TrEMBL record:
The keyword Transferase applies. NCBIfam families: HMG-CoA-S_prok. It comes from Secundilactobacillus pentosiphilus. The active site is at E79 (proton donor/acceptor), C111 (acyl-thioester intermediate), H233 (proton donor/acceptor). The keyword Oxidoreductase does not apply. This is Hydroxymethylglutaryl-CoA synthase. It comes from the Bacteria.
Length: 386
């Protein structure tokens, strides 16, 4: 039985910063950001969007009348949670009007949370092939103004439905993972911005990638020759390029060319949105599906990394029903309709934080269907403006 990703949608707000403007403002060469880091633009998230609304705006694209009653679980990966106790998944369930007889929980392990959700969903659907699981990765990546991490900020959400006979990717059963207590990136409960040991985090990422890739090959007897493309967690797109370069020498010249071309396809969306933490790998997969020339049956390798740290290499084959046409069209319309911010507008939006008392937010500048309208009696007030 084939099980995997049936639908994969993405949402990010329309406001963005051009990183050439950021480079000028920070006294850096634009090429450092565009080539050295591999990022062109960065999504800027208004205060009227949080992990729940980002997720709802993505999920509404994959939940419809045909699958609504099949969804048995929401697994919500995030490291931008809005409550220490109550899960973001329960809010999401209400906003999507899903029935009460489902499980709704939040999963946290830095950028790895959505992959944990995907693998748990894979196992669940194997036991219950008539059911679907809604897997979310929703985050806002914040390092702070004037920090080295600033150029790698971003945000948004991916929503995936995991089912039997999926339309996009059939997941292979074999997977290789590793976890280790490492302080490369973390965010204590009292902080809204992450702390990071930048270079060290890059080294741990590569180290984890090499280890799980080797372990995967041992388990499966597959080699690089079995792969048409790799999709990586992309905190910034140069990171994925560094990982790809670590394995390219294992391929012959012809295949190296194919893997590089497909890597370019896989980073097109990410380099214009930035890091969305849990969603980044899956945004890259969406970008690959939409911008590469792929055929049913071809195998894709996926590397998920969450600081702290957890890494996993797994794979899947393109479904017979695969068709990326419509999605490609929607994304090109989306990117051409975004609103570019000046540095002053970016810094103002970035610095707007929710107060810890009741507040009514101005939602007129946010065109999303789901918005955060304020806080009342310490409870977030969400609006569905459909
Ligand atoms: P930095 O110190 O500003 O940059 O920090 P740099 O000086 O290292 O330069 C970056 C690259 O630009 C270098 O290339 C330079 O040579 C190049 P590299 O050696 O890396 O190949 N460069 C130029 N290239 C072309 N033209 C030029 C030029 N000038 C320089 N003129 C850093 C960069 C990424 C460390 C920083 O932005 C940062 O700390 N970011 C956040 C941490 C991060 O994203 N880590 C990634 C791995 S950890 C991870 O993926 C998990 C994460 O997503 C969180 C989670 O799991 O929740 C972050």
């Amino acid at each position: 039985m084939q099980i995997g990703i049936d639908q994969l949608a993405f949402y990010t707000p329309k406001t963005y910063l051009d990183l050439v403007d950021l480079a000028h403002a920070r006294g850096e060469e634009p090429d450092k950001y565009r080539i050295g880091i591999g990022q062109y633009e960065q999504a800027v998230i208004p205060v009227t969007q949080d992990a729940v609304t980002l997720a709802a705006n993505a999920a509404v694209k994959v939940v419809n009348e045909t699958n609504r009653d099949q969804i048995a679980m929401i697994l919500f990966g995030t490291e931008s949670g809005i409550d220490h106790s109550k899960s973001a998944a329960v809010y999401l369930k209400r906003l999507l009007n899903l029935p009460d007889n489902l499980r709704a929980v939040e999963i946290k392990q830095a950028c790895y949370g959505a992959t944990a959700g995907l693998q748990f969903a894979h196992d669940y659907v194997r036991l219950h092939p008539d059911k679907q699981v809604l897997v979310i990765g929703a985050d806002i990546a914040r390092y702070g103004l004037n920090t080295p991490g600033e150029v790698t900020q971003g945000g948004g959400a991916v929503a995936m439905t995991i089912s039997a006979a999926p339309k996009l990717l059939n997941l292979d059963n074999e997977t290789a993972f590793r976890s280790e207590d490492i302080m490369d990136f973390w965010r204590p409960l009292y902080r809204t911005e992450a702390l990071v040991d930048g270079r060290f985090s890059e080294n741990v990422y590569i180290d984890f990638f090499k280890t799980v890739w080797l372990d995967y090959q041992r388990q499966t007897n597959r080699t690089i020759a079995d792969f048409t493309a790799f999709a990586f967690h992309l905190p910034f797109t140069k990171m994925g390029l560094k990982a790809l370069r670590a394995v390219l020498p294992e391929a012959d010249a012809e295949q190296q060319k194919q893997l590089k071309t497909n890597f370019e396809a896989s980073r097109q969306y990410n380099r214009r949105v930035g890091n969305l933490y849990t969603g980044s790998l899956y945004l890259s997969l969406r970008s690959l599906f939409d911008n590469a020339v792929l055929k049913p049956g071809q195998r894709i390798g996926l590397f998920s990394y969450g600081s702290g740290a957890e890494g996993e290499f797994f794979s899947g084959t393109i479904s017979e029903q695969f068709d990326a046409q419509q999605s490609r069209q929607r994304f090109s319309e989306f990117f051409s309709s975004r609103q570019q911010l000046t540095m002053a507008q970016y810094e103002r939006l970035f610095s707007q934080q929710l107060p810890d008392h009741d507040v009514l937010l101005d939602v007129t500048h946010d065109d999303a269907r789901f918005v955060l309208a304020g806080i009342k009696h310490d409870q977030r007030q969400y609006l569905d403006r459909n």
